[in-house]
Design brief:
The chain is mainly β. The protein has two domains: 174 residues, Glucose Permease (Domain IIA) (Distorted Sandwich); 114 residues, Sandwich (Immunoglobulin-like), CATH 2.60.40.2550. The protein contains two helices and 18 strands. Strand 14 and strand 15 form a beta hairpin. 43% of the residues are buried.
């Protein structure tokens, strides 16, 4: 069982002590390519929530930063969790299964919301905590001396979680510190100092991945990574483009465009009605009589916010 140092942390830091350590990327992935930040620390001390930029990427009472993977397939392939700074292991937990937790099953966790994890003492009261790691992947033990960047285990789906990610929280004494804005409490804005050694830019939402299918896929298939293909027969029942995304705000727009050998096949704009942590949209056309012309089809998805492009991805499909 994890030591008390791995208990859930309950208070935001007001001002970190002088000489605070810097922290490196805690996951071995490429932000914006093979992983993304789903949630940040909640800076709203009252009802509701907002992240350090006043944006939507948090939830009420969230005490850390969530580095998420695009699919459970990516989790199965293995993505390493790395020590964010030098230190000594205070405690670990392993053995909890990787699964999406249903609301009714939360009490069965018995307070082990962190799932499989590691906590590291960085000296002078500074501690980092790593949660939701993959079952059987933790490779360090209490008392081990750890170097920055050392592998601790892998990203998983254990504990109280809905998607594969690493939740990292940082504490100075008994107070949580947001590494993106360590000198703030209950406020938000654009100008802030960070504790990150790396250049980790804030991204207020965007595309996780895009793909083609022969019908509208189920959301579970999109999240797992099973949905999506790069080839299809000309007589497939339909030609569908989907976009899997995170961090929507009301009035965001997602434009889906399919272009084939003979020109534009499909275009549609969906306007988002609410904020959503993760979502997907799909659109396309049924196969015409005689089938689709063989050749290369191009799919493009663009998300815009307040008239400006937030994200864009393109993909190709071979119809044969």
């Amino acid at each position: 069982m994890l030591k008390n140092s791995l208990a859930l942390i309950c208070a935001l830091a007001a001002f970190p002590a002088a000489g605070a350590p810097t922290f490196s990327m805690p996951v071995d992935c490429e932000l914006g390519e093979t992983c993304f930040i789903q949630n940040y620390v909640d800076h709203n001390e009252g009802d509701g929530y907002f992240d350090h930029t006043c944006g939507p990427l948090a939830y009420d009472g969230h005490k850390g930063t969530d580095f998420a993977l695009p699919s459970t397939d990516a989790m199965d392939d293995g993505v390493n969790v790395l020590a964010a700074a030098d230190g000594v292991v205070l405690g670990t937990r392993d053995g909890m299964v990787d699964k999406v937790i249903a609301t009714e099953d939360i009490p069965k966790l018995n307070g082990k919301d962190c799932g499989n994890g590691v906590s590291i003492d960085h000296g002078n009261g500074w501690v980092s905590q790593y949660c939701h790691m993959k079952q059987g992947s933790v490779i360090v033990s209490q008392g081990d001396t750890i170097a920055r960047g050392q592998v601790l285990g892998q990203i998983g789906l254990s504990g109280r979680t809905q998607f594969p990610h690493l939740h990292i929280s940082i504490r100075d004494g008994n107070r949580v510190v947001d590494p993106f804005a360590p000198d703030r409490l209950g406020v938000c804005g654009e100008n802030y100092e960070t504790l990150w050694e790396d250049d980790i830019s804030y991204v207020g939402g965007g595309l996780i991945r895009v793909g083609f299918e022969v019908g509208v896929p189920k959301f579970a298939s999109v999240k797992s990574g099973m949905a999506g293909r790069n080839r299809m027969p000309s007589q497939a029942k339909a030609l569908v483009l989907f976009g899997y995304a995170f961090g929507s705000l009301p009035k965001d727009e997602m434009r889906l465009t399919i272009t084939g050998p003979q020109g534009k096949v499909f275009e549609h704009i969906t306007v988002m009605e609410k904020s959503q942590a993760q979502y997907f949209r799909a659109g396309g056309k049924r196969t015409p009589m005689g089938g689709w012309p063989k050749g290369i089809y191009h799919g493009e998805i663009t998300i815009t916010r307040d008239g400006a492009q937030l994200d864009h991805q393109a993909i190709t499909l071979t119809v044969e």
